[in-house]
Amino acid sequence: MTAGAVALVALALLSIAYGSTLIPLSDVIAALGRAVGLDEPEISGPVGKIVVDLRLPRTILAICVGGGLGIVGALLQTVTRNDLADPFLFGLSSGAAAGAVSVITVFGDSFGIWTLPVAAFTGGILAASIVLLLVARVRGQGPERLILAGLAVS
What we know:
Blueprint: H1 2-17, H2 25-35, H3 47-80, H4 92-106, H5 115-137, H6 143-153
């Protein structure tokens, strides 16, 4: 766990440092220290803004998304007792694709930039709900019934 935490911090710092403009690690650490209220020296130019306002939120979001995907993958593998489980087994990917395709073909981009992601999310949630309803109606809730319901919805 310690090695993983150290690697995560090191990779986060490298993620913040590298980009279209290379920022030295000392400036990154100084900007982050100044952002959390430590008595760090002022950094000249827009480097502090680039680090704190642009690259830090992206890095934090990437860490959160990666952690969330890891947790969901572990849950899918635990529920099915299958090391090769993926969202396709439960019909989630097919539901998301159906939501996205329906919005693309019917509405296009008329509702703005968030139309496609919201439609894909809604399709995935709808598919998951249908799978859970199918499993609830059938007596016995083993992993094989969950997989069969997911494949049926898919």
